[in-house]
Amino acid sequence: MIRPIIASAAYWFTAPEVRRLNEFTFAPLKEIAWIFLGIFGTMIPVLDYMERHAADLGLRSDAQFFWITGTLSAVLDNAPAYLTFFAGALGLHGLSIDDPRQLSEFIARHDHSLVAISLGAAFFGALTYIGNGPNLLVKAVAEHAHVNAPGFFGFLFKFAVPILIPIFILISLLFFR
Q: Running DSSP on this structure, what letter comes out for residue 160?
C-alpha cells in the first residue's frame, strides 16, 4: 500500500524538467500492466483445473513441484506459477484453494511441498526476462533508454543457464530428494 503512495509522491514532487531530462515515460509500466492483466485475468480456470488434475500430470514429489513450478515461472511469472502449482498440491490432498481452513490445514501438514513450490517459483524467475516482472520492466526501461541489453536467448544461454541451472540442481539434490 505504501509503495504506490511513495511512487505517486515522487512523480508529483519531481520537477517536470528532471523527468524530461531523464526521458521518463510510463510506457514500460503500461507494457507490464497489460501482460499481468492478461495473466491474472485467465488464472481462475487454470487453478480449478490444477486442483482437479494435478495427479493426472504425475506430480507427486517435492522435487517435481520444485522443477515444474520453476520451469513455468521461468517462462510466465513467479506469482501465477506459484498459484498454479499450489492449487495442484492442494488438489492432490483433496483440498481447495478457495477455503481458508483447508489452506491452513495444508500449510500445517505439507509445508515442505509449499517450500518446494515457493523456491521453484522465486528462483527460476531469474532465468528469463519474462520469468519475473521486474526483469521485464528493467529490459523495457533499458530499451527505451537505447541501452543494449542481451536478447531473450542471449540472456538465457550466456548468463542464466550456465550459472543458475547448476545451482538449482544442487538445491534439488540437497533439499528435495
A: I
pTM over 0.70: yes
- 15 vs 27: CA distance, rounded Å: 19
Per-residue pLDDT, 20: 87
C-alpha cell belonging to residue 171: 538445491
pLDDT average per 10 residues of sequence, the chain (177 residues): 80 88 81 80 88 89 94 85 93 91 90 92 85 73 83 84 94 91
User: Residue 14: phi, psi to the nearest 5?
Assistant: -85, 135
The span from the CA of 149 to the CA of 52, in Å, is: 41
Per domain, the residue ranges of the chain are: 25-175
CA 82, CA 117: separation in Å to the nearest integer? 6
CB 81 within 8 A of CB 120: yes
Residue 71 confidence (pLDDT): 93
Tell me whether residue 171 is exposed, middle or buried, using C-beta atoms within 10 angstroms of its C-beta: 0 to 12, 13 to 18, 19 or more: middle
Report helix, strand or coil for 59. coil
